[in-house]
Amino acid sequence: MTSLAALAPVLSLAIAGIGVIAFLLFFQKHGRLTTVSLLPYQRGILYRRGYPVRDVGPGKHRVWAGSELLVHGDMRPITVNYDKLIVGLQDGLAAQYGFSANVEVQNLRKAVYSARNFTNIPHATLLRCARRCLGVYSGKSIQFEKEAAISRITVEAGTRLNKAGFELVSFRLTELAVGTLQLPAMKNIPDLPV
Amino acid sequence: MSADQIGPILSIFFVLAYIGAVVFIGHQKRNSKMILITDYCRGVHFVNGTFDSVLGPGSYRYNTAKEQIALVDMRPQPILLERLPFRDALLHEGVVSIGTDLLVRDPRLATTALRDQIKDAFVIVRDTVRAAMTRQIVTGMDSASMIGEVITKAVNEELSKVGMGISELELTELSILIPQPQTAAGTGRIQ
What we know:
heterodimer, A: 194 residues, alpha+beta, 41% helix, B: alpha+beta, three-stranded antiparallel sheet, disordered C terminus
């Protein structure tokens, strides 16, 4: 009993020390605790050890920097607006067109995985669909079937956007004119990545 | 030795051990960095300047003095080639428009071969498409599927040299520009 009583301070020192080291090792493993605030128009996905664990909404969130990551995205509508685009038609004529569209993020998780920068998806999809759908018409038919062309673009783009976690809210063809195409004109169109 | 004699010795031993442990952990923390690799990324791990491994999703701590981890995003990047002029095998001039997704196929090669994966790969795609089109006889959109396959194969072959690739290539426009007399009433020229 006497010997144990004499060792009591040593044992408490040992326990306290182990506690301190465990505390340090815990922080070493998990990183430091940080706070991430999401605004009302933002949503996020919390990743733990590299994998998504849950979707989070606006507000304050505690995140262990180093072992957790909050990937957030802006949920406000994306406006897509292009003017003076040219597409070759089936009869050798060309159409000059422009469009305006509104797209909303419906499923952030799908959108995040759809591209490196998911805001590029509506632009790329609408440009692709508009060009593809208008290119199947001839100079005469495109003027008579403008509404059919619009609905065709809307359906095709809407389907593709849904697959990527977006919703096409509106699509409007702002400009459509048919004419002949001059060769130098095509060299003025820049071909930049979206 | 009695407990009264052992007690102080043990206390000194523990205190020294704790100081050592704290100093060691502090030193490790100062020279190390934590990195989180999400499931859509890979980490290319270099040790002493040479490639070591490709890291999958997870949380990693590494020594910044001798290790580096380059993050590579494996998600697709949509690219568009709008109205790319070409001259086909019969010397007909035309335009082709392409939409596709760029992907990283080999994170190690993409990291070491390209400074900017998207911009550099985009240039390769454009040049390869133009080169591939000069070997084709283009009749219009009816030859689009065959030309699409040829372009996909040629571009993937070129991009594989730098660890990249394309998927879901779509020919959105393919037309041959044959000079036409201006007889169509009500049509103007598009610049």
